[in-house]
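Q: Joint fold for the lines below.
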Amino acid sequence: MPQQPGAHKNSKETQEPPSAARKEDETQPLYDPRSLQYLEPTQTSLQCSVCCEYFTEPVSAPCGHTFCHGCIMQALEVSHGCPLCRTPIDPSSLYEVIALSRICDELLVYCPHKTLGCNHTCQRIQIGKHLKDDCVYIGTLCRVEECRKKLLKKDLSEHMESCPYKRVDCLMCNTKVMKSELSDHHKTCPAESVTCPHCETTRTRIRHLEHLKECPKQIIQCSLSDFGCPWKGPRFDLNAIHIPQCPYESIRGFLELSKTKMDALEQENQQLRAIFLDLRPQVQQLRDQVGQLSESFQLITQQDTPNGFGDAHGFMDMSTSGGGYAGAYDPQSHGMLSRQESYDNGVDNGDNEALRAAIRNNSIGADSIVSNLNNNNGVSVGAVDTHELLISENERIRSEIETLTAGLASLELKQNMAIMTESMRMQEEVQSLRAVCHGLRMQMHYLLLEQQNSRGHHGPPGSPVVGGGNNGSGTNSGGKGVSNGGGPPAGAPGGRPLSSIGMPRPRFTDGLGRQDTKL
Amino acid sequence: MALPKRIIKETERLMADPAPGISATPHDDNLRYFDVIIAGPNQSPFEGGVFKLELFLPEDYPMAPPKVRFMTKIYHPNIDKLGRICLDILKDKWSPALQIRTVLLSVQALLSSPNPDDPLANDVAQHWKENENAAIQTAQEWTRKYATA
Ligand SMILES: [Zn+2]
Ligand SMILES: [Zn+2]
Ligand SMILES: [Zn+2]
Ligand SMILES: [Zn+2]
Ligand SMILES: [Zn+2]
Ligand SMILES: [Zn+2]
Ligand SMILES: [Zn+2]
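A: Joint structure:
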């Protein structure tokens, strides 16, 4: 009996501000009972000493003091005595004061939304019903999900007339459309009837779109307009009139072929362009690196190399012009040239060929230096070392070539000498052979004469010897006819001077030699 | 958090029908914070003085007591140097049936009847017990010195 319905306690604990109480949610209290305004003049005897309002569900304690049920329960949580006389109170000893409760419930109150304009007054007990059912000044939300606009109940129906999110039926296609979008919808509604602007026939929009693909009066371009045919005219005329006389139609195959080729080329072009764009930053990067290298190299040469050093000069040229990328990047054209000059100065023209080759090697070396420098920007000493190495290498090659040339000359001299010596020896030998032959011939003569004399004719003994001696030249000339004519050997240049000595050589070497063996 | 109706009502009544010798004015920007002025009661060592206090209503008021503090220096055995007041209804004897008005009336009564047996300022209480006349004289001097408007 003393315990009050839980709902009341609830309503007290969840003291919501009025705006929250206005929610449509039925489970939330519609108002804060302690915020009600009463028409009656204040009667403190009917008021709770905790909340200073007219009692709400008043309960009395054994001490005789009366409080709202909610107020005393809250106060007892803090201290266990009566707020007025401090007598200890057991919550179960509280009892309802029904007569007082009725008196308070019958007090006249204003509607809590008086400030919003509701002039309604009623007994306190009625106010909940008023708020729930009658009060149009209670806050509510537009029922359309997308809108949910906060407004007073009295304004709701007006709002629903114009709520931009409210769905309305499109009378043409029977779909639901937001009111705000209805006029836009009419521009696209598939059921709306549309008149073809070309042939002036009318049909629904959805069919009009189909129709536009085949409307005979629509002005279209020739199907080969892509290739340059300027013809334009109603669709109907295209096939009927134009196509048979279209100059492009006859080469349609060619045109289409070239179009496919063009397309392929275009595609390739785009790919290449992409690659190019890809490469550009890399080139820029390289350029920057070379620029840095040139600077650092210039620094190196200024520090480490005395002026006038040919090779270093070459590189200096390279690096000074190397602010630009082309100069630094093409040592063959630039650094090479100056280096060639410096070499030409020191070397005679005869050896130029070999030297050029050497320089060509060198320029490759320069390339590798550049790449070396690329690898280690800071390592300058190494570059100079390589540099000096190249110079000494060139020097070495040059001296080698000189040595070779000298050796060649001396060899030729030696060979000439040897040939000369050999031919002299041969001449002497031939001479001695000739002498031997002569002796043998004389002997044969003698023997022949002796044979004739022994057959009967005996000539004076001394004459043949003398005659033989005199006939020497005579037989010589006769011998020419007897000889088999072996030509003089062509390859013996040293032999010629000997022929001036006397008899021709062949007779002795060939003909007589054979006769000798017969003998 | 909206201001409870009770605080509004109490404030209205304090302004419309102030207790004699007491004025309490809420701050414009914080209606739970009051500037309070209490006149020194007649026949007390604080007669003629005007004492400034601050009063703050905590969130759970009236279930919890208001917080009250003297801003004006006062020589009183139940009020310390910081202006804190030793008054049972501001502590364990608080009741939600009490109001700002009743609290301030109690403070005013405390000025009329200092209670050196429940001291907060020990040295003042000692002085009061040993030589009440001298203590009262000091209180009067302080009132003249600090609490004269
Ligand atoms: Zn109450
Ligand atoms: Zn009581
Ligand atoms: Zn209403
Ligand atoms: Zn709406
Ligand atoms: Zn439609
Ligand atoms: Zn048409
Ligand atoms: Zn055409």
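Q: Anything notable?
A: The interface with chain A takes residues 2, 4-6, 9-10, 62-64, 92-99 of chain B (CB under 8 Å). Residues 78 and 119 of chain B are 5 Å apart (CA to CA).
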